[in-house]
Design brief:
Keywords: Membrane, Transmembrane, Transmembrane helix. This protein has 2 helices and no strands. The protein has 66 residues and is mostly helical. Helix 1 runs antiparallel to helix 2. It is elongated and about 50 Å long. The chain starts with a helix and ends with a helix.
C-alpha cells in the first residue's frame, strides 16, 4: 500500500484546500451581508482561508504522527 501514499496525500491536500476555499467564500459572504466594504470583506476572507488551511494541515500533521 506504500505505492498509493502520494495519491492519498494529494487527495488530502486537495480536500483541505477545497474546505478552506469554501470557508473563505462563506466568510466573504457573511462580511458583505453584514455591510462591510469589499476590501474589509476580502481581508476577512483571506484570514478565514489562512486559518482554516493552517488548522487542516495541523490536523493532518497530528494524524501522521500517530
Amino acid at each position: 500500500m506504500k505505492h498509493t501514499f502520494p495519491a492519498f496525500l494529494l487527495l488530502a491536500l486537495a480536500v483541505a484546500v477545497l474546505f478552506s476555499v469554501i470557508t473563505a467564500v462563506i466568510a466573504f459572504a457573511l462580511a458583505r451581508w453584514e455591510g462591510a466594504a469589499v476590501p474589509t470583506a476580502l481581508s476577512r476572507c483571506g484570514i478565514a482561508f489562512a486559518t482554516s488551511l493552517t488548522l487542516c494541515l495541523a490536523v493532518f500533521a497530528a494524524l501522521d504522527r500517530t
